[in-house]
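Reposting from the mailing list since nobody answered there.

I have sequence plus structure tokens for a pair of proteins and want to know whether others read the tokens the same way I do. The first protein:
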Amino acid sequence: MDHFNYKDGALTAEDVPLETIAETVETPFYCYSQATIERHYQVFSEALTGLSATVCYAVKANSNLAVIRVLADMGAGADVVSSGELTRALAACVPADKIIFSGVGKTREELSHALQENILQINVESEPELALLDEVAGSLGLQASVALRINPDVDANTHDKIATGRQEDKFGIEWTRVHEVYARASQLPHINMVGLAIHIGSQLTDLDPFRNAFIRLRDIVAILKADGHEILRLDLGGGLGIPYDGSPTPTPSEYGRVVLETLGDIGIDLVFEPGRVIVGNAGLLVTRAVFVKESATRRFVITDAAMNDLMRPTLYDAKHDIQPVKEPQNGVNMENVDIVGPVCETGDTFATNYALPSMEAGDLLAIRTAGAYGAVMASTYNSRPLVPEVLVKEDRFSIIRERMTVDTMLEYENLPNWIK
């Protein structure tokens, strides 16, 4: 459920017509509903009732300060994958002791930053990282709280580019070697082993891979405990999928039941890293039709948003529902069109053969389910400035990221001194 609905013939975000926002900030822009973010966080948290659970929002899904702050105010921690995201989480008032640092390529500087902020734990993904972390912690006179991320060799049945738990993927330590690596890590002088972490992929629409991974994790915990190791926390990652095109997906409550069935009686604190499932359906990309173009075989609606603003269709062949901001009348004739951007690449396409009422230049469209991996993956390709982000609460809206200008982009560039 989200809070984007037609009211009085116009698509609104909560109680604000999207056309009103467009008149103020111009198009394209991202629009987020605070009520939807809050509801999704609450539903996910309630699905974990009965578990000793900490929910750490995956900042990479949408790293806007206002979005992180809304979730922090509800009690969420943060899962970060860079020093920049760590800085953002702290700036948004996420307590350091509710922040987890994940990722396969943390630098010396990033590890030092995490240690000095005294975050909850660092998820270590390789033996070289473990050795570096021990060295950095020692140089600072600190102990590093570590969870070892395991690769369970479980196929998440998701897109190849967002699968992370197979043997051939770059993430984590092979599950068959965890016993050996955990024992070695426990002997390092500046490492405090607190548990294990797992994350098998993103946009999972089948619960069986979760179940298989959690069962494997439970078996590994039993082996480690038998060796005398104390396991304080299990980070179960994120990855629960959402309905981009109306297709059915598992609910948070169904996911919670899988956790209860497999790990509910394990007696260890659990950490979760939801991202997409919290913010995905809470955001739209609003764009305006620039031209409607007829060709011999196609009808194109050319918009002012492009692949640099929303990469998912180009990068993942992702499908997003698209709606006219003006509500279609009952019985209106629909026509199949290609909805495309202005970038000079055929891949700059949001949808093909998509049914819409007759569109004209100037009409507004809303590309739905764009709250996750939309604005955060945007680029300035073709020297197109990053677009604004807007947060709506009831009948109010606020610009939470200003539109970049080309002049701002140029301020970061310099000519070398040999060019006059």
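The second protein, same order (residues first, tokens after):
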Amino acid sequence: MAMTALELGLRGAVVALFLVVCAVLLLRYAAVHRAAHLGAAMGVAGAAYAITTAPFFPASSFGWSSPFIAFAMGSPVIFWLWARAMFDERFALRPWHAAVWTLVAGLGVVSHNCWTIWPDLAGPCGRALALATIGFAVLGIAQIPKGWRTAVTTARGRILIALLIGIGLQMMFAAAAGLAAMPTRSISLSAALALGAFALIAIWMMLFDPPEGQPAVAGVGGRGQAAPVAARSLANAAPPPFSQAALNHLKHLMATERTYRQEGLTIGVLAVKLGMPEYRLRTLINDGLGHRNFNAFLNRYRLDEAKAALADAGQAEVPVLTIALDAGFQSLAPFNRAFKADTGLTPTEFRRRATAAQTTDAAENARSR
């Protein structure tokens, strides 16, 4: 009984993790990434699998349990569609995709609920479902080569590939175990725990930005002048692996349209503006331009604008907060932290030095006349 209680607790934790995955995807990425809804569907399917394979879940019932079974057993199709959306730029959902999912989910419902009443029907449906699961898992993993070269250039892309392969192999193992008539309890528990680990990895990928490359270097001149942009700036960075057109478009959005000022700007939103997948933009920012991550890239523009404004004698009376908000920062505290990390000075100290340097220059010019 204690082991059963422990197992139920572990499964509850797995369900909670998948619900967090769904929430983050729908709230943070749904508007800017086409794969977000399919990823959320994967989360629902993972939660449903943890529930339907739990102890005491009804083994034969066409009632309230059927939606849970359908989502759990239809997960191979969702996995395949999610993999296509992540790695195939030409992919688009079609009505026949829903028909395929309905067929596979229907096989799962029948095979799960008919063992006691129609075993002659449940057996073939279960075997067909296992073969379909293996097939769709292979198809999902087979999407990786379509975006391999770009994905492996970033830590996030490499983790995504490992996550996709891990989920596909887990599906194939569970299906093969079913075909071999292995004990289902230990298999289902290990599979649920594996899915929980996958959910943790997914949450980490979505909520945290793995560092990429080296941070841009910028500082303040000895006389308080605004520092030049980092050596590998948009103006001179044009590495061969990246599209010059994409680079020019990004430069135009940031330097001319000042998109960095936009409230709530994320890498997904910027990717939509550029018309490219998010992972490709991330690669361009990290490896093509040498920025540590998207926030470092964004702050480079915001801080350069703020430093220019603070060093402008015509804006001497403009409050620091106003300058920070105009540059795109949401509040004063993160602006002060970013500014101090970049220049070694507070915004007020920077302005004071810039003003003193300008006064000295003006006095020297007056004496020379």
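Reply #1 (J.P.):
I read it the same way you do. Residues 244-368 form a domain with the Arc Repressor Mutant, subunit A fold (CATH 1.10.10.60).
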